[in-house]
Amino acid sequence: MATIRDVAKQAGVSVATVSRVLNSNGYVNEDTRVKVTEAIKELNYLPNDVARSLFKRRSKMIGLILPDITNPFFPELARAVEDVANETEYTFVLCNSDNQMEKEQQYLTALKQKYIDGFIVVSSTLTTEQVHELNVPVVALDRIISPHMPSVSVQNYEGAQEAVQYLIENGCQKIAHISGPDYVDNAHARKQGYLDMVRDKDWYEDGLVVDGKYELDPAKKAATQLLEQHPDVDGIFVGNDLMAVGVLKAAEALGIKVPEDLSIIGFDGIALGETTTPALTTMGQPIYDVGSKAAELLINYIEGIPSVHSNHSFGVQIIERETVKKGGV
Ligand code: RIB
């Protein structure tokens, strides 16, 4: 396989001149450019991307770090990031951190050494200081790291309030909440949105908020305990759709009919919610738009294209399906 030295010898120029032609940087006169280009074709020379990365300290590669690829929300988000990366001829690398700071740091360090051009991170542990130390463009996705960093998220608090209001408008008399982990900023915001809607109700009491950890089985266990201890609960706002599937399983196991006896509304709008029986009513995030906006922000950041706004917050919309009993008070 021909090397850059073979091309230089064939064209009668220095290796540095060939590099300038390959990387389109620095002056090369037209005759020399033609000679080098002909030598590349005659020798079927393929530039070594790693070598180019080393030379340019750029790789045309972006990394996406996600906390839990077993949650269907994240593959839908990743799809959008990948589409934008491909459209702009960036390679896309997907990393799963399992919400572990150590794994997150390993990926960040390893990819930085391969001259990754920038990161999109869904992280509840990365700090502003760590981002500055990375010294490459970073966009926070779904979970905000710092208001001074580019980020893309949704209106979690407002969406939670809208979900609870929807249950109230449809006649629910006692509403509980299955929350995500408190260390995740959007889980905390959704819980706060719920609490600010119900704390003053005469039926509100301790024990109506239980942690489902944003996962199916913990949510099923938490909902079972909640419904056994509070059999008069007739509405549940669930902090994400995966947990809402767990709540549906808990209700089924307890012989509670949805929506006849218990109304359930989730948060996310993942495709899975269309397949449950009954189909899940939820607060839909514009997942594709959120992911593609993050990728667009990062690539503009890498390319030095100024963005008018670097903190984007999308609204969420109710997706009415079958798990909330319709009917006003
Ligand atoms: O379902 C996973 C949750 O984690 C989603 O609500 C999303 O917002 C992410 O934070």
From TrEMBL:
GO molecular function: DNA-binding transcription factor activity; transcription cis-regulatory region binding
Domain of life of the organism encoding this protein: Bacteria
Keyword vocabulary terms for this entry: DNA-binding, Repressor, Transcription, Transcription regulation
HTH lacI-type domain ranges (all copies): 2-56
Designated name of the protein: Catabolite control protein A
Organism field: Pontibacillus yanchengensis Y32
